[in-house]
From TrEMBL:
Keywords: Pyridoxal phosphate. Belongs to the class-III pyridoxal-phosphate-dependent aminotransferase family. Its cofactor is pyridoxal 5'-phosphate. This is 4-aminobutyrate aminotransferase. It comes from the Bacteria. One of its GO terms (molecular function) is pyridoxal phosphate binding.
């Protein structure tokens, strides 16, 4: 059996760390392990017990303030007043499901559809990214008449049977569907090619050929357009185009999983796929859409959607409810009113420039890459061999958490890429905190 890494286990608390915890933390971790399912993973050897958040900051139970350099769930900032107000007002008025008429879902959809290519003209709503991808796979299979889905080597697309069967990031314990095929990530740092787009398109064609050889009809390519769990692969801009052409030429559809790069995150565009100039057949959304309120969506071309939706009803009790829609509307309004896309581009570029300067001081920083406030910071044993330094990456995130109170985590098949993806409330003033913390921590760990 091929052993795949389990990114969920990389930055995680394990039983052997328990003896080093203070009594109060120990009591909570013990209680969790007694009454919660064993699949849960806590971040850090010394888990953080958070009690409050505001903007880009978090506070623990002892009153310590942290810089959140990781969480895109609270995309426009923890506890954003506009979302609180919208949810509060709607909750006081009505919350029910989508089998009654309500303007909230229509007003939001009209506004959301203005952000996507005009070919995409239908929206459906769910509660989680997993549900959105699950439906997207069903639609792809219905439209194409096939079952084969291609994802990247370290992809994560969700928790349902269909999506976990397309999520190699869950590790070797998770059986992938027989109809799932993996392509290596479009890693501009490690893949030696003059044309990454061509190279990646070829990888996809090879997997489609393999499906054909095994009697599996190709249905579609499902990809997070910033390849976040593969280790953050944003560049070169446009590299996805040839891959999408290959997908279409083979009768499949392209599903852009925008759970991570959507909603202005990458700065260059409102959606991750838009940076590459491609038009997906289906877009799926999640996390940042409701700033913490569970809401997700599927946006699609009507002809792609109709083969499924003309046959099978869809009812998701809490998907698209008035409260979720109020939260989502507030998020979209804030992104537009506060020009958070331009903010992400400006602040992200400054942050990336400062992080790149760290390469002059630290040989172990092999690569810094990103788009807007979505940055990968890759650690290697030496730049020549590019050997991933997972041990350093893990020690670094612990040091950042313990000494500098900066929260982040790791990604990628080797667990050696720091994923820097703060709430969009992250400001220029926060750059020093993050960059100095990285600098000091690397000096200490490499001393
Ligand atoms: C790219 C991507 N797709 C889908 C999901 C699943 O979303 P959810 O946890 O809301 O089900 C995630 C969650 O981490 C994700 O990162």
């Amino acid at each position: 059996m091929v052993t795949r890494s389990t990114i969920m286990d990389t930055n995680s608390f394990r039983a052997e760390h328990a003896t080093a915890l203070d009594a109060e933390t120990r009591q909570l971790t013990d209680k969790r392990s007694k009454i919660l399912g064993g699949s849960y993973r806590l971040f850090y050897r010394n888990p953080v017990h958070l009690v409050r958040g505001e903007g880009q900051y978090l506070w623990d139970e002892a009153g310590n303030q942290y810089l959140d350099a990781y969480n895109n769930v609270a995309s426009i900032g923890h506890c954003h007043p506009a979302v609180i107000e919208a949810v509060n007002q709607q909750m006081k008025m009505l919350n029910t499901h989508t089998r009654y008429l309500h303007e909230g879902i229509l007003d939001y959809t009209e506004k959301l559809l203005t952000t996507v290519p005009t070919e995409i003209d239908r929206a459906m709503y769910m509660c989680t990214g997993s549900e959105a991808n699950d439906l997207a796979i069903r639609v792809a299979q219905s439209y194409s008449g096939g079952t084969g889905i291609i994802v990247s080597q370290e992809a994560y697309h969700g928790t349902s049977a269909l999506t976990s069967g397309c999520s190699p990031a869950l590790g070797s314990g998770q059986t992938l569907a027989d109809t799932t095929r993996l392509v290596p990530a479009p890693d501009a740092y490690r893949v030696d090619t003059a044309d990454l787009g061509e190279w990646f398109a070829n990888q996809i064609q090879q997997q489609i050929d393999d499906m054909n050889a095994h009697g599996i009809k190709f249905a579609g390519f499902l990809a997070d357009s910033i390849f976040s769990s593969d280790g953050v692969m944003p560049n070169p801009v446009g590299f996805l185009q040839k891959a999408v052409d290959v997908v279409h030429a083979n009768g499949g559809i392209f599903i852009a999983d925008e759970v991570q790069p959507g909603f202005a995150r990458t700065g260059d565009a409102f959606w991750g796929f838009a940076r590459h100039g491609v038009v997906p057949d289906i877009i799926t959304t999640g996390k940042p859409m409701g700033n913490g309120i569970p809401v997700s969506g599927l946006l699609a071309k009507s002809d792609v959607l109709s083969t499924f939706s003309d046959q099978i009803p869809y009812f998701n009790t809490f998907g698209g409810n008035p409260v979720s829609m109020a939260a989502a509307q507030a998020v979209l309004n804030v992104i537009q009113q506060e020009q958070l896309q331009a903010h992400s581009q400006r602040v992200g570029a400054l942050l990336q420039a400062e992080l790149t300067k760290l390469m002059e001081r630290h040989e172990c920083v092999g690569d810094v890459r990103g788009a807007g406030l979505f940055i990968g910071f890759e650690l290697v044993k030496d730049r020549q061999s590019k050997t991933p330094d997972k041990v350093l990456a893990l020690d670094l995130i612990e040091e950042l958490r313990n000494t500098h109170r900066v929260l982040t985590s790791v990604a990628g098949p080797y667990g050696n890429v720091l994923k820097l993806r703060p709430p969009l409330a992250f400001q220029i003033q926060d750059i020093d905190w993050l960059v100095n913390a990285l600098d000091q921590s690397l000096l200490k760990l490499k001393a």
